[in-house]
Every structure is written in structure tokens, then in C-alpha cells.
């Protein structure tokens, strides 16, 4: 073996690796200019789309956020943008922007929190009063879709506000700071349906508005905070987990590092008050903490015809309804569901699998909690609550089922005469009128006169 040749081949390999490294670094640079231009070029056909083109934002700051969210992959970023535009179109978010959407009044009145002040960079600060929020009362009072639309409506209003701030200040302001106050957080906040709904809302907002939140500060965490965090952690992206900061009761010094003290609400230790020196800033923050019982959909006075059923572990509950006419609607509404359960609707038979008309997995925060079935044929419809897969717990259900006939019922009244010779549908003729008049006169003259001698 010749030693100089060995040494020469080693130096050649080393030189090749060094010349390749700068090219790799330049191609994978986060949010690089070449990636932004490539993503913008890939989205040009989508910008000309008649449905999604008006909602597409091709600004460099927005595209950099999508690239960071997609791990600096242009292909994944373009796919996520397309997916978010499709979801916004299905949820009619364009109506929210144009002002045609009116949010649920109960959510506007009883959803705690709001925007209050700004941080040192000029970004607005949103306070999420999680300990004050009556999430159980809200879930029992409004539909799941209304709450999701309300949160999207909030974020769209915040985006519009950020655009106005950018025009007023002359610099780009496209992020917000979130402060989650968990003071007075109780065990009701660990209610299963509320945690599952929070996880779904968080996942949707992460996919629709990447990079909108610069940091999430959690203050006054209760002892049960770890359980809440472990329940929500599987639904949080890694980029979102990196934004979360948890502070104990000495949170004020950390807030002062990010927010000027005169813009921190006075109840948290700052100087910001209302015009009447109220430390809770009622003019900016909503503090209503309890949804009245009479507003809940489970109020017994509003739904007196509900059925309370307990389905034993490993058992089924069958409810039979006779639908006399086709095109009728079988409508159901669940008010309380203690555990997840499966609902199956059979037609005319419980034994054949081909007779299954509809099947859905039900939870308290599920979209199938309220629904209906257009009955294609008349017959017997069996509604089965199946708890066979749950061998540990019973399921308590409060629900209501009704059969609604079709709006236009076909008239099939017979026009055949009733009896042998009398036709009750034939109009009265002149001859019959004369006979009636004669019979009335006979009856009149046949009455004996009183007081005769």
C-alpha cells in the first residue's frame, strides 16, 4: 500500500464534505428567502381559485409562519395552507370577516376573559380566565359547533385588530401574548367533556393560525394543573408546547419582564384600572362566572318529555319507534351522557347486519349529540344504545326521541259513496230542496194549537 495515496484520498473526501455543508445549510435555513419564494410560487394556482383566492394571504411574514409550522418543508406548508382554507370555507369564516355572522349571545355574555393592554413589543395581551370560566355550564347551554365558531370568531377579530395596529404604528404586529389565569380553578374544570372539547379547539386553532401566539403564560396554577396538562398534552404540537411557561404565585416579576407595569391589571399587581378605579378591569375583561341553570339545555322545565336511561355495563338498551309514513324524520337529542356510548339504528330487525341504518359513537361533546334520520321507508325503527364494549361502568343517558311526519302528506281520501244508495258527496238538487220544504211545512201544520175552545 502506498501511504501518500491513502493520505490524498482522505483529503479529497474531507474537501468534498466541507464544500457540501454550506449548500445544505443554505437550503434548510428556517424561513429563508428562497423557501418563501418557492412557497409563494407553489400557491399561485390556489391564489387564482374562485373559492379560496380571496382568503389566501401571501405576505412574507405569514408564509414564514407556515414554513416554521411545517418544519421548513415547502410541500407540507402548501398542503397545510390548502387544508386550512378548505376548513375555513366549510365553517363560513368569510361571513365572520364580512360581519354577516352573529355569535351566540350566551357565549358573548358568559365567556370569561378578553384583550387588556399590550406587551413591551406592542402586541396585545389576551387574558384567559380559566378559573372563572363555567365551561360545564357553557357546554350544557350551547352546541359544540357554536363554541368552536365562537373561538374562531375571536381569533378572526384579533387578526383584524392586529392589521389595524400595524397600519397605525407603521410596523408589523402579527402576534399576541396569552395569559391564562387559573385562580379558583376547581375540579369541575377537569370534567371529561370540557377537556375533550378544549383539546379539539386547541388542535383546530393550531392548524388555522400558526405563529399567532408568541407565548402562553400560565399563572396561579392549582395542584391539579399537572392532570390538566397531561390530559391536553397529546393534542398539542411541539411548537405549541415550546411556547408554554408556567409561573407560581410569584408571577408578577415575570409579567413585568414582558408587560409594562402600568398595563398589567391591578388585581394581578399592576397599575391598570377602570375609569372608576376598579382593579378587575371590567371594561376590558368579562368576569361573569356562572351560567344560570334556566339557560341550560338540560333544564327539566324546558324538556319535560326527556327519558333518563341507565345502560348497564356490557348491556344494551333498545327503544322501538313505529314510523307510519316514508320520508318522516326520526329526530333525537342527548342532554347528558356520562360515558362514551355507541348508538345504532336498525330497520325492522335487530339480528341482520344489513338492517343497520345509522351508527355513531356518542360523547357529550360529539357532533352527533343532536341529529335526525330521514326515514326512506315506513316500518319499525329500533334505536339501540350499545354499552357492550364498556365492561366496567354503567352509562347514564338523558335523551329525547321524536318522529316528525313529512311536511307534505299526500291526500288519499276516498270519493266512493258511503252505503248502498245514498251518495253523501253529491250536491243537493232542486228536487231534494222541494221535498225538504214540504216536510218542514207538514211538521209546522201538524203542531196542535194551544188554547182552543
From TrEMBL:
Superkingdom classification of source: Eukaryota
One Pfam family in the UniProt entry: CRAL_TRIO
Cellular component GO terms held in the UniProt record: cytoplasm
Every CRAL-TRIO domain range: 103-276
SUPFAM superfamilies found in the cross-reference section: CRAL/TRIO domain, Supernatant protein factor (SPF), C-terminal domain
InterPro entries: CRAL-TRIO_dom, CRAL-TRIO_dom_sf, GOLD_dom_sf, SEC14/CRAL-TRIO_domain
Matches recorded under SMART domains: SEC14 (SM00516)
Protein name per its UniProtKB record: CRAL-TRIO domain-containing protein
